[in-house]
Design brief:
With 261 residues, the chain is mainly beta. It has 2 domains: 32 residues, no CATH class; 220 residues, Pectate Lyase C-like, CATH 2.160.20.10. 3% of the residues lie in helices and 52% in strands. The protein contains 1 helix and 19 strands. The strands form 2 sheets. The protein has a 17-stranded mixed sheet that branches. Strands 1-2 form a two-stranded antiparallel sheet. The N and C termini lie far apart (39 Å). It comes from Actinopolyspora saharensis. It catalyses: Eliminative cleavage of (1->4)-alpha-D-galacturonan to give oligosaccharides with 4-deoxy-alpha-D-galact-4-enuronosyl groups at their non-reducing ends. Its EC number is 4.2.2.2. It is found in: Secreted.
């Protein structure tokens, strides 16, 4: 089955699409909501093993997608990424297609600039830094069709997500709820447009001192979309307990920071 067919079958109903199967062919009507404005790809490259990035890599809007060990297309934990960024690396002008495996891993501070996910795999990008001073900067770009998380923070430090589009997702950001080595983590989310369906913009562990700051947020199509959820994280791999949501000392925003359309 082709990559396109796999993607259609996987996300047919999640994307709100009407379809009819005739003689093995899936006929798809346009989705009822606008998609993230992914730029036109200027080329394609299949990736059979993780690409390591040191310094700056400009993809020039090439679409990268997994094959072989990176081509499962499922949601299983522990998949390898398409890209692994060394401390201080920058990845820019890249489109990640399907299958997307576990997207991008940042092993320290990193910058993702104008990176687009057509169909998020396990996660779009994971922040794995060891230092509390580490930063992961996501500037521009967008993601869609994320069954669970878009950005996952497993290590220490601060993630900043700005000028970003997201649609059809579980959580835009999640601080790991049950990692074996927990710490305080921080996220700044600014000038982001989130289009329904979507569950939550951020989930943080209040018991470890996580913070999430929001400004210039536009939510389209769901006036009940959660902005910030509070969790009781743990270090024993248990499911973290949700203990609340909304603005607080840890979830920093007020009504003027959020626009519902």
């Amino acid at each position: 089955m082709s990559r396109v067919s796999l993607r259609i079958r996987k996300h047919l109903y999640a994307a709100g699409v009407c379809a009819l199967t005739v003689l093995g062919t899936v006929l798809v009507a346009p989705a009822s909501h606008a998609e993230v404005d992914v730029p036109e790809a200027q080329g394609e490259q299949a990736v059979g093993s993780t690409i390591t990035v040191e310094g700056t890599m400009d993809g020039e809007l090439t679409r990268y997608y997994g094959e072989g060990d990176l081509g499962d297309g499922g949601q299983d934990e522990g998949q390898p990424p398409i890209f692994e960024l060394a401390d201080g690396a920058t990845l820019e002008n890249v489109i990640i297609g399907a299958p997307a495996a576990d997207g991008i891993h940042c092993e320290g501070s990193c910058t993702l600039r104008n990176v687009w996910w057509e169909d998020v795999g396990e996660d779009a990008a994971t922040f794995d830094a060891d230092s509390a001073s580490a930063t992961m900067t996501v500037q521009g770009g967008g993601a869609q069709l994320a069954e669970d998380k878009v950005f996952q923070a497993n290590g220490a430090g601060t993630m900043t997500i700005s000028d970003f589009q997201v649609e059809d997702f579980g959580k835009l950001y999640r601080s790991c709820g049950n990692c074996s080595d927990q710490t305080d983590r921080h996220v700044v989310i600014e000038n982001v447009t989130a289009t329904a369906p979507g569950l939550s913009l951020a989930g943080i562990n209040t018991n470890y001192g996580d913070t999430a700051e929001f400004s210039e947020i536009t939510v389209i199509g769901d006036s009940e979309m959660e902005i910030c959820g509070w969790y009781e994280g743990n270090e024993d791999s248990g499911e973290p307990e949700k203990v609340g949501s909304g603005p607080s000392d840890n979830c920093r925003y007020d009504s003027s920071d959020i626009t519902f359309q």
